[in-house]
Amino acid sequence: MHQQLANRNRVLGLSSGLDEPGSIRWELALCLLAAWVICYFCIWKGVKSTGKVVYFTATFPFLMLIVFVVRGVTLPGAMTGISFYLTPNMTKLTEAEVWIDAGTQIFFSFAICLGALISLGSYNEYNNNCYRDCVLLSLLNSGTSFISGFAVFSVLGFMAEEQGRDISKVARSGPGLAFIAYPKAITMMPGSTAWSILFFIMILLLGLDSQFVETEGFITSIVDLFPKKLRKGYNREIFIACTCAVSYLVALSMVTNGGMYVFQLFDTYAASGVCLLWVAFCECVAVSWIYGGERMWQNITRMIGFRPMPIMKYIWTFVTPILTTATFIYSMVKFKPPTYGEYVYPPWGVAIGWALALSSMLVIPTYAVYKFLTTSGTMQERWHILTTPVLARDHEDYNDEAHTKRMKLKARVFKGEYPPIDGVVQLKPIPMANNSATDHHHQLPMSTVSSSKTAAVNPALSDPPSYNDAVEGTNF
């Protein structure tokens, strides 16, 4: 306990509450500045530089995880911690916070609803097997989370035995686990200095990895919205520098004496929990019911050359919206003010948190209402215009009725009766002046030829097939 208080006083200088922000801890401010400077130089040249950095920042933590698992399970008391980790506590399922934390963990570990996967995935080739990538990502991510539990709880079990305390009193959630409980356990291990250095290098790389990937996802989205301005000269690099600078200034509020309370407020409301549940619900409704789950399924089929499992479409259409809605409502019914240790946030602090949450949640319905009001025509005409896909003229599916025609609800969601496509699509990248990854998307022109003739002359030219070619003779 005395060591924890010393940690608070020395590193955090923690104040008594959110109403006492205090001064900036300059040691932490300089570390934060170094993190954003590193982040800038990791992404300033686009995914070409980011990809090279990830080779190290992503693989080194995996190596260290294996090392910590092997070391952890050999410590005395490790089985106590592992048993605590693997034994389910069914009573926890009645707590809304558990469901919110579980959803947040999934959203963050898979980068769902944060924009990074969509933005970075847009750099892939058109016929990249995204279906395979998603399955591998799910297995690898969940498997890593499961294995990391052994590394954490084996060491916490060792700590509990050394202190003569119950494991449930030692295990903590949130920042306290990574920066207080686990490091304290490491100091009790033989060769603690070396283990501490390796542990914090791993934490630093994991943090930087998440930081620049999410920042790159945001940068890519904005650059794609304004390509003529931001892809000219050094405008992209300047924009990245401004983004990092603004992010640093906002984060300064989290390195004051009361910064941990601010951080907890952002962590609870601004980028997790109800926010991500809301975004997930809106994304599924937009893709599955407005654009059309069947149409989306056919798009994927056309890209990868075979039809994915039908259950995927029904998960988008029914399972995910129902789960996110149920969890959202349950969390509202069981809502409790956030806490940090024994500190309970005051009502005005909770109000600030909800303001942070609503600042992102309300953007979706507000923009939808704005577009509906500013579109000309009758109410029905406006709805038809806004729910009909619109593609750019240089898009490979431009003028293809299967992808641009408005379909009835049953057709676009469940079983689309799409007009036949005569031939297959030839995808040939347009030569570009600068072939670096900073130039982002390759523009793929579309030429329609007879599939039989193409296959007879050169079978290689029939790849990738159109949707109708890929699923010809199948019936789901």
Q: Can you tell me the residue ranges where pLDDT is under 50 for at least 5 consecutive residues? A: 417-476
Shape: globular
Mean pLDDT: 78
Which value, in Å, is the CA radius of gyration? 26 Å
Q: Give the strand content.
A: under 5%
List the helices and strands and how they pair.
Blueprint: H1 2-12, H2 26-43, H3 47-73, H4 78-86, H5 96-109, H6 116-121, H7 130-163, H8 167-170, H9 175-187, H10 192-225, H11 227-230, H12 235-251, H13 259-270, H14 274-304, H15 311-333, E1 339-340, E2 343-344, H16 347-361, H17 363-374, H18 379-386, H19 401-404, H20 409-413, E3 424-425, E4 448-449, H21 451-457, H22 467-470
Antiparallel strand pairs: 1-2, 3-4
Helix pairs in contact: 2-10, 2-12, 3-7, 3-10, 4-7, 5-15, 7-9, 9-10, 13-16, 14-15, 14-16
Descriptive tags:
globular; about 475 residues; mainly alpha; 4 strands; two-stranded antiparallel sheet
